[in-house]
Amino acid sequence: MLAHIEKEQLLFGINAVQKFVSTKNIMPILSHIKIEAKDNLLLFTGTNLDMGAQCQVPAQVSQAGSALIPARHLAEIARRLPDTSVSLEISPQFELTIRYEQSIFTLKTMDPEDFPSFPPIENAARFSVKAADLKKMIKYSIFAAGADELRALFTGILWDLNGNALTMVGTDTHRLALSKGTVQTDQPLTGQFIIPSKALGELGRLIQDEDCQIVMTSNLAYFTFENVVIYCRLLEGVFPDYRSVLPKEYLFKIRARTREFLDAVERVALFAASNDDSRTVRLQIESDRMKIFSQSEFGGGDETIPVQNEGQDLLIAFNCHYLMDGLKSVEAEEILFELTEALKPGVMRLIEDDSFTYLILPVRA
What we know:
- By secondary structure, the protein is an alpha+beta fold.
- It has three domains: 2-114, DNA Polymerase III, Chain A, domain 2 (Roll), CATH 3.10.150.10; 125-243, Roll (DNA Polymerase III, Chain A, domain 2), CATH 3.10.150; 246-360, DNA Polymerase III, Chain A, domain 2, CATH 3.10.150.
- The protein contains seven helices and 26 strands.
- The strands form four sheets. The chain has a nine-stranded antiparallel beta sheet with strand order 14-11-12-13-26-25-24-18-22. Strands 6-2-3-4-17-16-15-10 form an eight-stranded antiparallel beta sheet.
């Protein structure tokens, strides 16, 4: 294999697939990126068997071929290269030579014949989603997903398809974020799929402007856009009925400026007790204002912001990080915060837009 490529394109290909490379020393081959040169393209592939990605970038290919290259070493070298053209050459002994200007690097590689291929697609549902809609839906739901691998189901995002409507739901059981959008499909689709949040996070990071073509089977999802393909295995289990946990009515409807609300919570959160796992901030709602305050052994913080309040006075407390996560995720000047009573969930929504719903469980004030 012999190919010439610009440093920017080389780094793009590596960055697109590196997060899918295994960091566990179970199978050494999975800590490598496969590079294949053909048809004036370089194809980069990384996988940990549960998920994987392939990215193709333009290159000048003088000799076709492929190799498996240690992902970490290749990435570190590529990031430190000057902005110049780079040549990549694989010897018959599977040694990669990287040349630029007057410099040479070599890396030991592995035989690409043993690298696993992507799993086949059978009995699939096919549809597409606009890039901007998909990015927003991922952003509106992924932050509420759990991180505990012992509860793997909650590390995923539910995709609930009904006709051309798509609902994404993330929850760690203490909060729940829901986003709504539409899909383009030739036939109505119905079904629920649980997609690992790590794969969706990378999808949201990489997708740019082109619609995403999606293929979903009973245990696999494929996402194709621009010059990237991502696949992942679906998580198994029964996702909680998210509809049943959303309150049917509210006694309080507080309308506030999103940025003003977020800034006040961020400042007051500095005083949330360090020895309190709930990281509590309290909201005192009175008429047309909301006081946000917290106290710890270091001191206290107290801020008041103007709001529009439909309801009586109320004192309620929340985990400050849960509040901030919801406020940071939305792309709106104002937010609607609906409440019932001090020990029942609060729900954030957009004004006159049902594309985002965020439920947070309170803590005892």
